Amino acid sequence: MSYMKDIALLVDAKADQFCLISDKVWDYAESRFQEFKSCKEESDYMEEQGFKVTRGIGGEETAFVAEYGSGKPVVGILGEFDALSGLSQEAGNPVHTPIVPGGDGHGCGHNLLGGASLAATVAVKDLMDQGKMSGTIRYYGCPAEENAGGKAFLVKAGCFDDVDIAITWHPGYMNKVTENGSLANFRVFFTFHGLASHAAGAPHLGRSALDAVELMDVGVNYMREHMIDEARIHYAIINSGGTAPNVVQAEAQVLYAIRAPKVTQVKELYERVCDCARGAALMTQTKVDIKQVAAYSDYVACDVISEKLGEHLDEVIPIDYTAEELAFAQQFREAITELDKNNLKGLAKKIAGKDAAKILEQPIWNFVIKQPLGGSKGSTDVGDVSWVVPTGQFGVATLAAGTPGHAWQVVAQGKGSVAHKGMLAAAKVMAATACDFLTDPALVEAAKKSWLETLDGETYPSPLPKDAKPEIW
């Protein structure tokens, strides 16, 4: 039996509250481990709704869990609320117009992600109050998904040890259940220490840390030819050693992201990158400090949960958009780059074949995509949860088709009615799926069995160093 009709009524009854919370989080636009206002907004609301709220879980000041009910099964719904740096943008404006130049913005839609997950959890709680099911429902307010992998630290701290089923979603421009295959990812700082000297008067007395960074980067770039095609390595020079060219730079720092389909593959690449750093230090007679600050495991989808998510996704899609909403989305279809438009054409051909032109005419892709498209080339700390709990994830369209991720166009659309409708649809899917598992012990066992079969004897790879801790860097 589907609880979708009951769930839809409950979500719609409080829709204004959920949209307001999402919009406030959009306004706060707080980045990793600094989401103090966003955390308070959501946790206070859940307390008002009758949940038992525990703040500061897993050593993360801005992480919390809101729990209702008792006993088994325990279903956890995962939310996020962190923003991205440098993506400040006016809401609703299809022209790049930062509110605060260089400020933060919700370029990945986490205001909506948290809003929907929170709404889903509240709806399930309201059904429990009607006596229609028992068990435990939890909302996990998870910070620092971007760049810091906040959930990996929560997993390390045991915050999911008693959870039976985990459910989450992500905003985007496609309605689709998420497949296996996000990339595992290490974030690593390489800090080089040299000797300062007058670059003209006594260059022989200096040892340049910036030279070491540049030589390391060259080494890694040559290494790309000799690694698996699916791997990705990117870097940013965080500290170039100052702005004076007539001083040999005594310190310089570079931050690396090292990705591959499996954590074991990332670990191997990590050691090779570290060797490039050590070699650069040797060549320049500098010293290097290596510090891994974050890690993401690859995502392992539970087929049983995915199937239920797909069933309920079919119940809420298509969404009823107005002519004004379609016109709004069309503005943003026109605001993306030619490269993004060409990429969209390729994706449309993969989805619709000869009928690609028909879906390219739609400013919002208002249909469920059934075809496998291959795993995401990005990374998510949901992957870490999926190694310790049977997990399901899906996407709902909140953006104009073709909108690039981590871009100002995402921020601009994050408070519109199209985004709100997608968020509420996602909430209904998650809540209905949670009800399936709360009312059917056999389904919970089937999910665990399927998940274990997928893992095929592998266990959580524990990608974080033992001494790693959540921190702002």
Blueprint (SSEs and pairs):
Layout: H1 4-13, H2 15-28, H3 36-48, E1 52-55, E2 64-70, E3 74-80, H4 110-129, E4 135-142, H5 150-156, E5 165-172, E6 176-177, E7 184-193, H6 209-223, E8 232-239, E9 251-260, H7 263-284, E10 287-296, H8 303-316, H9 323-335, H10 338-352, H11 356-360, H12 382-386, E11 391-397, H13 408-413, H14 417-438, H15 441-455
Parallel strand pairs: 3-4, 3-5, 5-11
Antiparallel strand pairs: 1-2, 2-4, 6-11, 7-9, 7-10, 8-9
Helix pairs in contact: 1-4, 1-14, 2-3, 2-4, 4-14, 6-7, 8-14
Brief synopsis:
The chain is of the alpha/beta class and 473 residues long.
Largest sheet, strands/sense/barrel: 7 strands, mixed
Total number of helices: 15
- Helix/strand class: alpha/beta
Number of domains: 2
Radius of gyration: 23 Å
In CATH terms, the superfamily of the largest domain is Zn peptidases
Helix content: 40-55%
Name of the CATH architecture of the largest domain: 3-Layer(aba) Sandwich
Shape: globular
Q: What do we call the CATH topology of the largest domain? A: Aminopeptidase
Report the top-level CATH class of the largest domain. Answer: Alpha Beta
Distance between the termini: 48 Å
Mean pLDDT: 97
